[in-house]
Amino acid sequence: MRHLEKPLLSLAGAVVLAASLTVAAPDGARAEWEPKKPVEFVIMAGKGGGADKMARLMQTVIEKHNWSSKPLTPINKPGGSGAEALVHLKSKGQSDPDHTIMVTLNSFYTTPMRQKKLEVDIATFTPIARMAEDTFLLWVHKDSGIGSLDDFVKAAKAAGNGWVMAGTGKLQEDQLLTDFLNASYGLDMKYVPYKGGGKVAKQLAGQHANSTVNNPSEQEGFFAAGKTVPLAAFTPDRLELFPDTPTFREAGADMVYFMQRSVVGAPGMSDEASAYYRDLFKKVYDSEEWQAYRKKKSLRGAFLSGKELMDYWMAEREIHRQMLEKMGAL
Amino acid sequence: MEILTLLLDGFATAFAPINLVLVIAGVSIGLFIGAMPGLGSVNGVAILLPMTFLVPPTSAIIFLAAIYYGAMYGGAISSIMLGIPGASTAVATTFDGRPLALGGKADKALIAAAVASFFGGTISIVLFTAFAPPLADIALDFGDPEIFALMLLAFATFVGLGGEDIPKTIFSICIGLVFSAVGLDIMSGEPRLIFFDIVGFMHGINFLVLAIGIYGIGEMLWTIEVNRGQTTMSKAVISVDRIARNLKDLLGAWKTGVMGSVLGFFVGILPAAGATPGSLMAYGVAKLTSREPEQFGHGHIAGVVAPEAANNAASTGSMLPMLTIGIPGSPTTAILLGGMVIWGLVPGPMLFVEETEFVWGLIASLYAANLFAVLINILCIPVFLWMLRMPFTILAPLIFVLSLVGGFAPTQDMHDVWLMLIFGIGGYLLRKLDYPVAPAVLAIVLGPIAEPALRQSLLISNGDMTVFLTRPIAGPITAIALVLLFLPLARLIVNRLKRSG
Description:
The complex is a heterodimer.
Chain A: H1 2-22, E1 39-43, H2 50-64, E2 72-76, H3 83-95, E3 100-104, H4 107-114, E4 126-134, E5 137-141, H5 149-159, E6 164-168, H6 173-185, E7 190-194, H7 197-205, E8 211-212, H8 216-224, E9 228-233, E10 259-265, H9 271-286, H10 288-296, H11 306-326
Chain B: H1 2-14, H2 17-35, H3 41-48, H4 57-81, H5 91-102, H6 106-141, H7 144-158, H8 166-180, E1 183-185, E2 190-192, H9 207-227, H10 240-251, H11 254-269, H12 275-289, H13 302-317, H14 319-324, H15 331-342, H16 351-354, H17 356-388, H18 392-408, H19 414-432, H20 438-460, H21 467-470, H22 474-500
Antiparallel strand pairs in B: 1-2
């Protein structure tokens, strides 16, 4: 019996494939393909960070509602700013593209550009779902007495190179934003990298740094305790959580920047499998839990999938290329 | 008085039947996970996190905290019985726990570990209950210079660890530091020491890979060579009489227990550190302050008491910044923090005000978890001892398999398994050449904390080294560290001069 199963399975696969080809509608392959073994759910960041928390929330929602016949097994691969995770996904593309997906962030664009040796091209990866975009704000400590962007510019200018901006990692999002602030306001802030947004937030709360560009989720605790204050948001319009905080656009400096929270599949994933995962994550996106989380953490970004998501990636990759070039990092 | 009322309410929550069942289940699972090499509290909590959505948040955190706690007890078991650290937090327990077991005193080591864990746990929970909010501010005051000063202190307490041969100790520390530098350098954003462009080095060298390689594989090779396969494991017996005698012996180590508990708790609070550095530091201090430091590493009971008291105390301590400022003090609490966010709680200063039932229920459950952990642990000692009576021909393959699993489990990467085998052979050779290996293990734990802290401090101070001496908290710590660092050197020079004179 055992050796009979395989031809049968591939026959079934062929039927499904034929069905999805004839019914060209995007929903054609729905519910036909199912994972045949546990799905590897790679997290492109370390345990406990923002990406990790979201990945585990997605996994929990799927398990709670029993939406997947096979479990998702999360594996953290933070090595080399996600380099390890990207290479892993690429190699899975050769061996088993249908059972490996990954939660990704903006290092998805920058890491392959900065580490050419990896020979990773994200255009070959399979777009599955953009689940959210995280926002950034400029933060200072309450006791600094700074209450507005103008105060901040004045104080940072006076301090010159003594003004410490803490951020996550070298040549990552936080430094891109710091460089932008330095250039737009003629500042000379010193950028000091830390491992992870939580540590950065703590540096500000303990007044070891003068300012940060944290996500709302990283500072919300200190903000609630009245230790830190947001001065301006890197968003097109004001955030619901911080209605009194202006955007940089309002202040005349047009800077909008988001951190993507997306799910990507291995290169070469079959259409049926990618349709299955797309539907799965659409369900997660629409779930009460995910929507509540989005609201609470001030997340933006509508659900994107397929070609739309790939187009978004290509546009973002170009933006990041220009930023890195300006910084002389390429 | 208000605290007492809150704590009593907390006990009412913790002793609700469902929570009590969860505490006992959590502690038992934790003991098992902790005892499995490579699987530590991080793995246990991460794996079981999704299951906790079936119960209310308070019950969920009580369950996970019980696992965390049980794992701290469990880690000691394989450190003592097999010589493989069951969890990163139990590495220091191997130094003296293993020699005790080899000398036929496994029961003594196990009881010491259980009682010290209980002691450390209890002291730290009392400290936690009384001082949680003010201590949170101290954790915030620790900037980079303070963290580096603390790491310097940890290194200083370990200078004497490798015995009298200081050059060999320094060599061993340097090897550990080089390995700790592998991976991505966050200060420059560049990959570092990626040997032969192997991708596996990108995530750095996991400290457990080195520790399990050296203590699991390396020790096994060493034992095989020394005994030429004819090892009869030392007889391990247990009786009520022996337990009573062991408990009496332990009374002599109460000072070490207090030191380990308090030190572990304070190191645990600090966001960068956690239970592993805490237990290593406690071991170093115990040796330094002991009247018979030469017996450390050969089965001194204080060498088991200090790290075990410290790692339990630190596990409680690391929950403090998690709850009060939303910053995890250890990898495990980072996962717990993620869980709290999913349960809809906002960790941070407001938690103590808004979620009193959750916070005090958790604190009270720690008292309960601690009690059950020590009882279950002591009841299981005969089972552990039975394991030791197995012939070495069975035990050696078992150690080998457990080491492989332990090397694979944290990262699920075969690269780490190969690396662990290489470290095992390297550890065996070092041992043959009489190099101390413990300092290398210490360096690979502390290196990744110390190095960025040093560079961040110097970046902020524009390269001014006095930053470590002039700040109110960093200054005294650095001064003590420097004294400790040069004391053994000075003593050595004086001794040499005397001998030659």
